[in-house]
Specification:
With 352 residues, the protein is of the alpha/beta class. It has 14 helices and 12 strands. The protein is 34% helix and 16% strand.
């Protein structure tokens, strides 16, 4: 199997990857940072690793050969469960990366992943076949075995109509609406930015439904990343719409970037999910001691007045109907802050 990392994006080698996969019938799984790599592709297995799809993780545990392309091979990718020790598995590993410090396995190729894929896509095997030298790895029964483990993504609580909204309901409605607009010329290839917080898990899970790429902080997960990242994305890609999904805690850690957004008139939609708490920390405190709830409840400012102080229009909603109405009436040619009042909701923890 192939595990494709964000290096595929940076090397602009998506088409080369698809060709390599198609020639050799090798299925592809993606890492967190390469989410949305390939849309509507028959050999794509979804996310591998922690919170990975059943198909991708089955393939990862049972493959004879794993080819890591542009991936740093982090524990988030390799840790399937406590019963699977990737480092000591008998699986053969080829890794290709421009950063030699992250290379791992039996064959380590320090190179640009695009050049490596082009080499194999255009090489010939001994019998002068027009197919790649990986042709002997093609195995239809292996692919069939993987797809027997296919399963529909299931996320609890998506049908809830409770008020305040569950965070996963709010995120699903937002992503569903803007995903439907993705085929319109004036909204093509919108950029989704995600901050760190309890909402991060919901965004990552729900984005698997739409195979949407996300810009987020990854393994280090610093709160406050989202707002400056959205600024950078908007300045870098002025013709793309930018949507930021932020928690109330992380939003306030770099809130001064509202000045950057306002002064540059960056057309960023800032969605602040407000449950007046640091949700992940609260949940972990409860796990260790159900009576412990220390410094996780927030006394938030009025986010609408805060946005208005920077010259940014804002609105607050707390129901499905209000949220749908708000996003349908948005004019995304200027900055806008949409506060969504949400309920306290535990994120689904990884089971090891």
């Amino acid at each position: 199997m192939i595990v494709a990392g964000a290096g595929i994006f940076w090397a602009d080698s998506i088409e080369e990857l698809k060709k390599f996969s198609e020639i050799n019938k090798i299925p592809i799984a993606h890492t967190y940072h390469s989410k949305g790599l390939i849309n509507d592709y028959g050999l794509e297995l979804g996310l591998v690793g922690i919170r990975g799809s059943k198909m991708a993780n089955f393939a990862f545990k049972n493959a004879d050969l794993i080819i890591f392309l542009g991936s740093k091979i982090s524990e988030r990718t390799t840790h399937i469960n406590s019963n699977f020790d990737f480092k000591n598995a008998k699986t053969k590993v080829i890794s290709v990366n421009i950063d030699q410090n992250v290379l791992f396995g039996d064959i380590k190729i320090h190179a640009n992943v695009k050049k490596v894929l082009n080499h194999f896509n255009h090489s010939k095997i001994v019998n002068n076949s027009s197919k790649s030298s990986f042709n002997n790895l093609s195995n239809n029964s292996w692919v069939a075995d993987i797809f027997q483990n296919n399963e529909k993504i299931h996320i609890d609580g998506l049908e809830s109509k409770e008020i305040p909204l569950k965070p996963q309901v709010a995120i699903k409605l937002v992503m569903e609406y803007f995903n439907d607009l993705d085929n319109l010329d004036n909204f093509k290839d919108y950029i989704l930015v995600n901050d760190a917080g309890s909402h991060t898990t919901w965004v990552n899970l729900i984005s698997e439904i739409y195979n949407k790429r996300i810009i987020f902080s990854g393994a280090m997960a610093p709160m406050g990343y989202g707002l400056p990242a959205a600024c950078g994305a908007s300045i870098s890609k002025p013709n793309n719409k930018v949507i930021l999904i932020n928690g109330d805690g992380g939003f306030q850690m770099n809130v001064q970037e509202l000045a950057t957004i306002s002064s540059n008139k960056l057309p960023i939609l800032i969605i602040v999910l407000n449950n007046s708490q640091l949700g992940v920390i609260r949940q972990w405190e409860t796990i260790y001691n159900e009576d412990l709830r220390y410094s996780v409840d927030l006394e938030n400012p009025d986010f609408l007045k805060l946005a208005n102080a920077y010259g940014i229009e804002a609105e607050s909603v707390n129901s499905i109907e209000e949220l749908i109405s708000a996003i349908k009436n948005l004019k995304l040619d200027k900055p806008y802050l949409l506060e969504v009042l949400i309920a306290e909701e535990d994120i689904p923890l990884v089971k090891f």
